[in-house]
Amino acid sequence: MERKDIILSAKNINKYFLDPIRFKALDEVSFEAYKGEFLTLVGKSGSGKSTLLYCLSTMDTNYEGEIQINNQIVTGKSINDLAAVRNANIGFVFQFHYLLPEFSCLKNVMLPALKLGRYSYEEVEVRAMQKLKILGIQEQALKPASKLSGGQQQRVAIARALINDPAIIMGDEPTGNLDTKNTQIVFDIFKEISSEFGQTIIAVTHDNDFAKASDRIIELADGCIVS
Questions:
Q1: pLDDT tens digit string along 37-67?
Q2: Which of 67, 72, 76 shows the shortest CA–CA distance to 85?
């Protein structure tokens, strides 16, 4: 793998929680993620992996250190600037799909692109169908999201994460609610996204098999990178 294109850089990230007592959740965390890399963050509950992901995602700004995304320092930017950075550069896949149940799958996928405003409504619709096709669920496009199985809903959520062609897809336990078969489907999709389209995957997981099959594992313990 070519490792010259750094897509995300974290330098000396420290994070404290103050309730109920001052507690250091992240301790001098530094690493780089590369274009087209499938990276997993692992560790026991409370190790800091989800806390780190939320700092990297720019949704948590209360940390010390510096984070760069696509050669742009995001630390210290305003809430509005960070929202724009996220919408343009980062797609999110959570353990729960967070689809709007009354909306069609197609409309759910379209929403982030309509918000970004880079394309016309018609172009967004075409792009959303393309993403659903990549994920093998284009025939479900006009169904309400509530009518799909759990595995299908998670694939719609991935299509939604892909709609703006973000440099990075961040996943917080993206297969946590899925059975073995659907976990494998999601893994294969992530592998394809990183290798075929050059997008970087950074996923928090408790699934050892999922992590072992990724390109690189970063293990955290007590807020530190241990391997």
A1: 999 999 998 889 999 999 999 999 999 999 9
A2: 72
Helix/strand/coil percentages in the chain, nearest 5: 40, 25, 35
Q: Residue 84 is inside which H or E element, if any?
A: helix 79-89
- Domains (range + CATH), the chain: 6-225 (3.40.50.300)
Q: What is the pTM of this model?
A: 0.89
Residue type for position 40: T
- Three-state SS for 200? strand
| Phi, psi (deg, nearest 5) at residue 205 | -150, 150
Could you read off the pLDDT of 157-203 as tens digits, one per residue? 989 998 988 999 999 888 888 888 888 888 888 898 898 889 999 99
